[in-house]
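Lab notebook: predicted structure, single chain.

Context: the supervisor wants predicted structures on file for every construct in the current expression panel, including those that have not yet been purified. This is the next one on the list. No modifications to the sequence; it matches the entry in the shared construct table.
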Amino acid sequence: MNSVKGLLAASVISIQNSCFIYPACKTCFSRLILDSRRFNCLKCGCTGEAKDASYRYRLSLKIADTNDLFDITVFGSCLDPFFGVTAENLQRYIQDFSQLSGEANAEASTGALVQAVETCFIGKRFIFAV
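Prediction complete. Output recorded below exactly as produced.
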């Protein structure tokens, strides 16, 4: 699954969603089911306390090369340099900001993050390993 089939030089046309991080299983990287106190991985069965959940980047993009449009999703720590922090630290910053500012500003902080990601990626050319 991790073998590279080829390289694709393409420009980012748009960001496909506003959710850039997800709670991920440390064993299989699948999305965790979280409730207020526990997490559960439906794929491999891992469980634990919600406060110990790990987070991972997931950035869905629409990209274009000279001939075609593609939908592509970039996962994991390769995005750390673009965000400046790990996904776990970004999740912590978002939670801390939401608690300090209250629920009324949660949408504003999400909007600011989306705008920053769009500025960083849209219109830029990258080489994608596919």
